């Protein structure tokens, strides 16, 4: 495969492409080219106000330089999506002109072919959040990218950072990693609008299958939720492998199988089936623990259990230490990610990665938080910690540790200041500052000042 021809992009002149062979062997170059998609809202730079992606990339570069002194380096390739892509590739296009386009045409305004070609070639990216219109318009570009490149696992670890004064008193017990299936479920975008010809056809078909008009009104909009054994199993396999590698105590299959028996319930059944077929010697199921081991997990075994999604939301709050790796279908994973992140201080710190077999895109759990656009105010921590996941993926553990330790130091020093009473100067952004008793949002610093403080700690390490 040779470098694609771009309309407006210029690839970095130095650096090495991460190839499918590198993915297969898990041996990555010391100078990888990584696509950087800054994103919309808080992701984008506005005038002299840097967005969170720029702030995060600056910290990541500082950590690599400190850890490897020039022997390793990320070569960023700026590619574009969202509002920036619209103004670059379709300057002057009006909202009405965009509305008149079909879905594919609308998508191309915000996700140009250049961007797809570049990511398809380079296969590795760090991405800021992108806006999705609500109730109409094009499908989510974020979701589109995950489907297009078969980034089937959305991996979102959430761990308490010492020094963050999270309101939940169980915060320090949180150490979970969500594996959210990324390519199925209601996210497939198969929907039929109420009253449309297609909705009427689908309803007519359902009537033929025996579903009566009191079950599905003629006026209903319809959404389809496909969940397959192949795609469930590959996600659950990755979750179990991760848990075994990290010596995690359990994998919980989180589903709503009591209500959606053949999708969510099947996800759970396929999970147990896979665990027994492929990992029999390393795992034990919760049923087996009670039937054969008096309720105690035998030493060295990974516990496979399942929970119904609604109960899971209270479990994570009341008994977070009983959960470590969670494998779940797409929509549950979306809801759970934000909820678990809230336990440790909020989505400003919630990192994530979309991982496939031959490509990966690292991105925060949160969205564009549009009201903070151009204010240099939002927390760059989630994108930064997504960069830490990128480092771990590349096996750059020294750089990953430098960033994590320096971030922790930045929280810890603010905690020390806050303990002395209100009125001190903190080094964290508004969202973390407001959690310290007696402090408010105004005690926080800008995104760039928080990033710079982390860099100072990296230099001092
Ligand atoms: N992967 C992606 O690109 C994603 C994109 N989106 C899209 O983002 C848009 C906005 O979505 P919305 O529902 O408002 O959710 P957001 O996650 O963008 O924001 C919700 C709230 O979370 C807090 N927050 C989010 N990010 C940060 C941060 N970095 N630092 C501090 N606080 C933060 C803010 O809380 P507070 O108001 O309390 O300060 C914010 O108002 C939508 O178009 C949505 O589709 C959503 C999720 C993921
Ligand atoms: O694509 C979007 O706009 C939302 C995606 C989202 O909420 C997520 O990935 O967690
Ligand atoms: Mg979400």
Instruction: Tell me the number of structural domains.
Output: 3
Query: What is the radius of gyration?
Result: 23 Å
Order of helices and strands: HEHEHHHHEHEEEHEHEHEHEHEHEEHHHH
CATH class of the largest domain: Alpha Beta
Number of strands: 13
Fraction of residues in H or I helices:
40-55%
Overall outline: globular
Q: Using the coordinates shown, work out and report the CATH topology of the largest domain.
A: Isopropylmalate Dehydrogenase
Largest sheet: 11 strands, mixed
Q: Indicate the mean pLDDT.
A: 97
Find the CATH superfamily of the largest domain.
Answer: Isopropylmalate Dehydrogenase
CATH architecture of the largest domain: 3-Layer(aba) Sandwich
Q: Which oligomeric form is depicted?
A: single chain
Characterization of the model:
- The chain has helices spanning about 20-25, 50-70, 85-90, 95-100, 105-110, 115-120, 140-150, 195-210, 230-245, 260-280, 285-290, 310-320, 330-345, 380-395, 395-420, 430-435, 445-460, and strands spanning about 35, 75-80, 125, 155-160, 175-180, 190, 220-225, 250-255, 285, 300-310, 325-330, 355, 360-365.
- The two termini are about 40 Å apart.
- It contains 17 helices and 13 strands.
- The chain has 3 domains: about 1-155 and about 350-460, 3-Layer(aba) Sandwich (Isopropylmalate Dehydrogenase); about 165-185 and about 225-345, Isopropylmalate Dehydrogenase (3-Layer(aba) Sandwich); about 190-225, no CATH class.
- α2 (about 50-70) packs parallel to α17 (about 445-460).
- The longest helix has 23 residues, at about 395-420.
- It binds NADPH dihydro-nicotinamide-adenine-dinucleotide phosphate, 2-oxoglutaric acid and magnesium ion.
- 2-oxoglutaric acid (AKG) binds near residues 140, 142, 334, 337 and 365.
